[in-house]
Amino acid sequence: MHSDCLFCKIAGNEMGTEFIHETAELVVFKDIKPLAPVHLLIVPKRHIRGINDLVDDDRAIISELILTARDMAKKMGVERSGYRIFFNVEKGGGQEVFHLHLHLIGGWE
Ligand code: 5GP
Ligand code: ZN
Asked: Among positive and negative, which fits the CA dihedral 61, 17, 31, 4?
């Protein structure tokens, strides 16, 4: 837990953020500034700074994030209409919160 990290605080239940889904390893919550009708963030509880900081031992959590995105798309009813999942990487790639998170956006007409 990094005390100055927003997503560590959210995942640690310190911010009162409502979770769409929670397991021992990750939490899912709505993005505060949604880019689409459905915009979820899928976030490991353990602090990982970003994609560049992944190590071989992170294979399991990365798989879990993607399989959770699949499940959340179904839960939100966008699995057939379509959706995008993405990681922003470093400042130039649009990353603003330096705690790994997978975006899921969809729900367009
Ligand atoms: P990034 O740009 O780092 O890939 O994505 C960070 C995302 O976190 C942004 O889409 C932003 O709207 C979202 N965000 C930032 N602060 C908060 C917050 O306090 N609560 C929630 N739910 N989302 C946040
Ligand atoms: Zn963190």
From this structure: negative
* Domain housing 69: 6-106
> Which residues is 29 bridged to in the sheet?
41
Mutation test of ligand 1: which of 5, 8, 14, 31 has the most ligand atoms closer than 8 Å to its C-beta?
A: 31
| Ligand that comes closest to the CA of residue 39 | 1
pLDDT single digits (tens) 34-65:
999 999 999 999 999 999 999 999 999 999 99
Q: Distance between CA atoms of 90 and 52, rounded to whole angstroms?
A: 8
The rounded Å distance from CA 51 to ligand 2 centre is 13
Number of folded domains in the chain? 1
Specify the CATH number for the domain of residue 97. Answer: 3.30.428.10
